[in-house]
Design brief:
Bound molecules: zinc ion
Strand content: 25-35%
Number of helices: 9
Radius of gyration: 18 Å
Low-confidence stretches: none
Strand order of the largest sheet: 1-2-3-4-5-8-9
Shape: globular
Number of strands: 16
Distance between the termini: 11 Å
Length: 289
């Protein structure tokens, strides 16, 4: 399996931190019925998206994209040394998988010009920071961290009421280090990086469209988690903050890219995680390339 993909003048690297079972399909997808699960079990298992106990398998990864001008890291995954008592696989972990994957792609933390988070959930901001002498410091010392304004404002406000651990340890230290930039939906980086607002999973969730003048690749973040949601776009996920908006966003996103050349780089689909959107009945599928 190649972890490096070319698209137009982009080079895309997958930086995998974990690929493992997450929650049971019926728990994670509240509108999924046992009957529909049974109809889809065989192909979901063949795609390694479902295990023998009907637990969904997810990949947790970053993408690093090299444009002719910049090196951009999209979603910073889970991170080390972070207290996540509800997630044993993530809690206070100290493995070197992520940094080794970065090195295997020929990259060091100093190479990253921009970090962009599709949203500010725990598994998308983790490596924003790392622990150094008891303090959280930016992992990518030269990077500017780009946060979408709606998303940033939502979490700053939420965190002010009740501290949200990933905001406390993986976002606020970036703000305090003055490494961040809060941007509107019209923001672009050169002629290669554009934002597509995709609200629902979180209020300011954004997909990122990369490519010179056209979308050679789109990074969909958590507007979709599992391939079964491509086939049934209305099937929202337990943690979608606004389930109805997430469903609407999911269908319109899949429709937008259906039968185009754009590579859809999902955050959580099992490997290879990347494909082109094709129509399948009243839904879609993401076909590996
Ligand atoms: Zn996620």
């Amino acid at each position: 399996m190649s972890l490096t993909i070319k698209a137009g003048d982009l080079t895309i690297h997958r930086i995998i931190e974990q690929e493992t079972t997450f929650l049971s399909a019926l728990e994670m997808l509240p509108t999924l019925t046992p009957e529909v699960l049974a109809e889809n079990r065989a192909w979901m298992q063949a795609a390694k998206a479902l295990d023998a106990k009907d637990v969904l398998i997810l990949c947790f990864q970053s993408y690093v994209v090299k444009t002719p001008h910049h090196t951009i890291l999209i979603d910073s995954c889970i991170g080390n040394d972070k207290p996540r008592p509800n997630r044993p696989n993530w809690n206070m972990k100290t493995d070197d998988t992520y940094l080794r994957a970065l090195a295997a792609a020929g990259l060091s933390v100093g190479d990253i010009d921009y970090v962009m988070c599709t949203h500010l959930h725990v598994d998308h901001v983790g490596w924003n920071t790392r622990l150094e002498n008891g303090r959280w410091v930016p992992t990518f010392p030269k990077a500017k961290y780009i946060f979408a304004k709606t998303e940033f404002d939502y979490w700053i406000e939420t965190n002010a009421k009740t501290p949200v651990p990933p905001i406390v340890d993986s976002v606020m230290p970036i703000v305090e280090a003055k490494r961040h930039e809060v941007v509107g939906d019209e923001h672009a980086i050169g002629d290669h990086v554009r934002i597509l607002p995709t609200p629902g999973h979180t209020p300011g969730h954004s997909a990122f469209r990369l490519g010179r003048a056209k979308d050679d690749a789109v990074f969909s973040g958590d507007l979709i988690h599992s391939p079964i949601q491509a086939l049934y776009p209305e099937m929202s996920m337990k943690f979608d903050v606004d389930q109805a908006a997430a469903a609407k966003t999911r269908r319109s996103f899949l429709e937008r890219y259906c039968d185009t050349d754009t590579l859809c780089c999902t955050a959580h689909f099992p490997s290879p995680s990347v494909g082109r959107i094709k129509r399948r009945g009243n839904g879609f599928s993401c076909e590996a390339v």
